[in-house]
Amino acid sequence: MNKFAHRKKIISAIIICICSIYVLRLFYMQVLDDSAQYKAVQNTQRLVTQYPARGLIFDRNQKLLVENQPAYDLMVIPRQVKAFDTAEIIHILGIEKEVLIKNLNTCRRYSIRKASVLISQITADKYAKLQEKLYKYPGFFVQTRTLRKYNVNHSADVFGYIGEVSPKQIKQDSTYAPGDYIGVNGLEKTYESILRGVKGEQILLVDKYNRIMGSYENGEYDKPAIVGQNLVTTLDADLQEYAYRLMKNKKGGIIAIEPSTGEILLKVSSPGYDPQLMVGLERSKNYNKLSADPNQPLFDRSIGAAYPPGSTFKTIQALYGLQEKVISAETCFECYGSFKTSIGGIRMGCHEHISPLDLRQSLQHSCNPYYVNVWRRILENSKYPSVRDSYAAWRNFVCSFGLGNTLCPDFSNEKGGSIPTLAQYDKMLHTDNWKWSYIMSISIGQGELLLTPLQIANMACIIANRGYYMTPHIVRPVNGGMNVVKKHIVPCSPRCFPPIIDGMALAASLGTARGAAIDSVAICAKTGTAQNPHGDDHSIVMIFAPKENPKIAMAVYIENAGFGARYAVPIAGLILEKYLKGSISPKRKDLEERMMNADLISK
Question: Three-class SS of residue 30?
Fold first, then answer.
């Protein structure tokens, strides 16, 4: 009897254990394990990201430059995908089969459960055809997006463009997910955090064919997207377009600034490209074509190209000479033109003009020997123990003008140019015991000295303002923006500026820049012709107007265009006239047509 009782206890224990296992398993499956619920949710619900419209971009006159247009992304949940007709999809979308397969594999590596972008930026016409067929493709659905629409066919260097976020960027900012768009360069990049807005979420009910049946709980759990903030730029869109027409078939950059505010009125990098090329399914092909173009339309010459400033830099040399009192406005030097002038045993050539010249006349005629003499006095100044020390003081003065540094916080790709350091020259000259003649080329804006068109335009602002500049900017200050506008005063006495301005006025009326003259407007200008070891000289002008209470200051830099007076000066004059008077006078229409039709790229 005891034997049977013992067996009964064992069997009961086994039964209790088995029942406990079943109870625990059921508890786990029904309470703790949510996989079944997840599968049910996956089959009946779809979490859709609501992408906000990016902020709009306007010009200074509230003209809409950049807006949004509807577009669509083909999304995929890899786990739900079954064998499908690839030929039909690639025919509808106009893509290669290899692209479809590659993107699908990428989505699988990211997640087999989560939705990710398979094909992005599908246009409305292709979406309409695709939507009719989607019921045949489990795991695929379309998500509405917005793409940029550019209302001008220029200024891509200003706006930049948007592209898909990279894995590295996702790691840096968890608010991004694969398939999201982000500003790649230009204002789209600088103001990404302001323009992009905040993403929302929508929960949709779907049937077994993945068709949308409505909102879950009438949208009670949805999160609305927050639209991005608008930007108002300082650009004059009409002036910008006019400048681009003048720069057609030319390489170079133009920057125009309102001196009293630092607002950039126009910014041209030529050759440029239509910003709409970087939108839609063809953007990758277009980018490759632009990258392969030998004229480098993707390169921003207005803020990213460092050029020799040529004779425009003589204005800074004159200011420093006056500040250090090594010259006065009445100081005269001789010049023997093409016969070359000997300065300390070194001969310097020039073009034919009156001789001797004082400071004002030296700017009027852009005399090279005059500024070699000024440079020698600057570097051999007895106030300093050595030429090297004199150069250090000169460099500090020049850098206070914003040269050698970036100026505009609105551009992430701006270059600072080059004002050579003492260490650089020590290494290059193989000595720290310098002679003034070792770096003589800097006297006329050549040699190792490199500036951007933006920096040259800012030089014009400082002279126009008689000793200060406002932080150059192309976006009017916005909440959360980084462009704090400050007044920067240069360490130069007010007494130094009138002779320089008078000399520039003479250059514009009777000298090398007279081709920019406008009826009833007093213009101040300084031309430049920068030597170029790779081809023809560069044509340059630094200009502002009117002489009193100036409204616009500008730099025009045209590559391989010869003397400054040949192309840079007339183009600058036309832009000034367009801005100050609203139209071009009939007597200058021939000049306008000649500048617009000039082709300096194909020659």
Answer: helix
**CA–CA distance, 515 with 575 (Å, rounded to integer):** 12
In this predicted model, what pLDDT tens digit does every residue of 60-113 receive, in sequence order?
999 999 999 888 888 888 888 888 888 888 888 888 888 888 888 888 888 887
CA 116 and chain centroid, separation: 30
3-state secondary structure 108-156: HHHCCCCCEEEEEEECHHHHHHHHHHHHHCCCEEEEEEEEEEECCCCCH
Which value, to the nearest 10 degrees, does the dihedral of the CA atoms of residues 356, 361, 366, 371 take? 60
Q: Which of 416, 380, 412, 386 has the alpha carbon at shortest distance from 401? A: 416
Ranges of H-type helices in 341-440: 359-365, 368-379, 387-399, 422-429
Host H or E run for residue 201: strand 200-206
Classify the C-alpha dihedral 378-379-380-386 as positive or negative. positive
pLDDT of residue 51: 84
Task: Tell me, rounded to whole angstroms, the distance of Cα 484 from its chain centroid.
Answer: 18
pLDDT category, 212, cuts 50, 70, 90?
low
CA 327 to chain centroid, in Å, comes to 40
The Cα-based distances of 568 to 367, 525, 526 in angstroms read 19, 11, 11
What DSSP designation does 179 have? T
Q: What is the mean pLDDT of the chain?
A: 89
Residue 590 CB burial class (10 angstroms; 0-12, 13-18, ≥19)? exposed
Q: Are 147 and 66 in contact (CB under 8 A)?
A: no
Q: Please, what's the b/e burial string for 486-513 (b: 16 or more CB within 10 A of its CB; e: otherwise)?
A: eebebebeeebbebbbbbbbbbbbebbb
Written as six digits, the tokens of 526 are 């300084």
What values do phi and psi take at 170, rounded to 5?
Answer: -65, -40
Tokens representing residue 187 in the block: 């204002």
Q: Give the span between the Cα atoms of 500 and 497, in whole angstroms.
A: 5
- Residue bearing tokens 């009138």: 498
